[in-house]
Amino acid sequence: MAASDPWYLKVKDLVAFEEGEVAVRQCAGCHAPVALMTGEVGLYSRESVGSLEGVSCVFCHTLDRVEGGNARYLSDPGRIRPYPGGDYLSVQEIEAAAHLVMADPQQHREDMMRPFYRTSAFCQGCHELTMNGVRLQSTFSEWAQSSYAEQGVTCQGCHFTPGAGETRERGRLVDHRPVERDRVYRHTLGGGSLTVAARDNRTELKEAVALEAAWQGERLRVTVRNVKGGHAIPTGVSDLRELWLEITAMDANGREVFTSGHLDAAGRIREGSTIFHTVFGDEHGNKIVRHDIWRARQILKDTRIPADGQRQVSYRLPGSAKDVKVRLLWRDAPADFQQIVVQGATQPAEVFSLAEWRQQR
Question: What is the superkingdom listed in this entry's lineage (predicted)?
Answer without folding.
Answer: Bacteria
